[in-house]
Specification:
Blueprint (H helix, E strand, L loop, with lengths): L3 E11 L3 H13 L3 E8 L10 E5 L8 H16 L4 E4 L5 H11 L2 E6 L3 H7 L8 H15 L5 E4 L4 H4 L7 E3 L19 E8 L6 H14 L3 E8 L3 H11 L5 E6 L5 H10 L2 E4 L13 H8 L4 E4 L2 H7 L5 E4 L5 H10 L13 H13 L1
Parallel strand pairs: 1-2, 1-4, 2-3, 4-5, 5-6, 6-7, 8-9, 8-11, 9-10, 11-12, 12-13
Length: 365
């Protein structure tokens, strides 16, 4: 049987993005029925995998004319790559996907990884005065274009309550990690290493994590913090550098560049505790952070924000110490040293459960 070609396209996500490549790309490639082409931002790594082609766009700044032109370049690439299915994962490629359907045929799917409307309104990605206009424009584009898409993929269960434009044409594929099997936690030093991984931003709690580490290090000099990830706003990266200046117990990997996910997973396996603490905001209240899945799936104890859904997710194992408002640094330190975690091995927290849904959907499509 002839293999069908699936293109997975993004603008800002790197070609080796964990969802595009490690989850969708590898799962579909290993099914044996598809050839995969991934289009995205350049990666510092040089990804390679059987039956997957990587096409990197030329680098550009986050707010630049080159970024505005990037969707056109994606369309030009699509015109040269014969494909049966196109999966996009950003609103910036919505018009491109529709033009692709009109010009070249095939199926088009929209993998919604964020509630862009709320993200734009409640983060500092855009100047405050234009946020409402940009947010409304993006949501209007998604609503008007919805009938043209054959299917929608939702990265969060909560999205079914936050927007309705997909109608009944959707499948929930949560951002559970692809965990190496078997995996081994690595204790490299006598110090207690905390970890903050993923997107580095005010809205993801990086500065709360730094402040927490400083308060714990003041009580116990063996406490360290490893920060690994990417700050989309260069101003945030500079502020992180300023806040950690002179703190030799805090290290930063990335910040001004995209870190390969393999390096993030290595950091998770070497850590003693992961920090998950998002300042309360409407754009994250229904979300399950990807790193929360990653930490639980690799049995990394967590210092966890007191958010009901996240606490309920971690409590059965148990996986976390909940950072309540009344918990002092001294009490937290005692809990870190005395509590036992993961007396029950977590189940249904890896990509395996989502992989089957993805493959079944593509067969139907």
């Amino acid at each position: 049987m002839k293999k069908r070609t699936i293109v997975i396209a993004s603008v800002l996500k790197p070609v080796d993005d964990t969802r595009m490549f490690e989850k969708f790309g590898i799962s579909l490639s290993e099914s044996g029925n598809y050839k995969i082409v991934i289009i995205g931002y350049p990666s510092r790594a040089k990804p390679a995998y059987p039956n997957i082609d990587f096409i990197a766009l030329k680098p550009f700044r986050r707010l630049s004319l080159k970024r505005l032109v990037a969707p056109i370049k994606v369309l030009l690439i699509l015109s040269k790559v014969k494909h049966d299915i196109l999966i996009i994962n950003t609103h910036e490629l919505v018009i491109v996907a529709i033009l692709n359907r009109i010009l070249f045929g095939g199926k088009i799917l929209y993998d919604i990884q964020e509630n862009y409307y709320r993200n734009i309104l409640h983060t500092d990605a855009f100047p405050i005065l234009i946020r409402p206009f940009v947010a409304l424009l993006v949501r209007a584009k998604e609503m008007v274009s919805a009938p043209f898409f054959h299917w929608f993929l939702l990265a969060e269960k909560g999205y079914t309550k936050e927007f309705s434009f997909p109608g009944k044409k959707f499948t929930i594929l949560e951002n559970k990690p692809r965990v190496p099997v078997p995996f081994t936690r690595v204790k490299k030093q006598e110090k207690t290493q905390l970890l903050f991984s993923g997107t580095l931003g005010e809205s993801t709690g990086i500065f709360q994590a730094i402040a927490l580490t400083k308060s714990l290090h003041h009580l116990d000099s063996t406490i360290t913090l490893r920060i690994i990830g990417y700050a989309a706003r260069y101003e945030t990266y500079l502020r992180i550098q300023e806040v950690i200046r002179g703190c030799d117990f805090i290290t930063l990997a990335g910040g001004d560049y995209l870190v390969p996910h393999s390096e993030v997973m290595t950091a998770i396996l070497e850590a003693d505790f992961g920090i998950v603490f998002y300042p309360l905001s409407p754009h994250t209240q229904s979300s399950m952070p990807t790193k929360l899945y990653e930490y639980v799936a690799t049995r990394l104890p967590i210092l966890l924000q007191d958010h009901k859904a996240w606490v309920e997710f971690c409590s059965p194992y148990p996986a976390a110490i909940v950072l309540t408002k009344t918990l002092s640094p001294a009490e937290l330190l005692f809990k870190m040293q005395s509590e036992h975690f993961y007396s029950i091995i977590p189940s249904n927290v890896s990509w395996i459960s989502e992989e089957a849904k993805l493959i079944d959907l593509l067969i139907k499509i």
